[in-house]
Amino acid sequence: MIERIRQGTFTIPEHRRNPRIPELPLAGFGFLTHFVWEMLQVPWFTGFAAASHGSVVWLCIQATGGDVLILLASFWLASIISGNRHWLLERERKPAVILVITALIVTVVLEWLATGPLERWTYADSMPIIPLLGVGLAPLLQWLLLPPLIMWLARRHMLGHVALQFHNSG
Length: 170
Hints:
67% of the residues lie in helices and 2% in strands.
């Protein structure tokens, strides 16, 4: 079983033994990685240098909550399209691509609204702006770089759970 897990060649009934829902590790690893990203990109937004540390952390926690919602909504759309909530375990690429593209589209729209009509935040002069989209490079890179890492971490976590469950049952 362990070798089949490493190779990714286990069957549907075997991975159904995993009682955890894939959203939990996705949300957990999503929160951890996005929070670090949010804190690291603080210098590229105006107003944070004069703000208290606590208020910056709180704003980053709020932004991270939004990131997790985007991640989960993108995961659910990918799951609906693929017809399988356990696609992470099965190494399916199409749902992973759908997740990333969906999250990128949502991010572009939200960033454009927040920095434009809604005036929720502004970029510092140091933030590179994508000309045709009018949004910052850092938020786009966030959704290009973090989802593959999050999916990998969540998959490893779920496979570890399956392996432990199999080991304990046999």
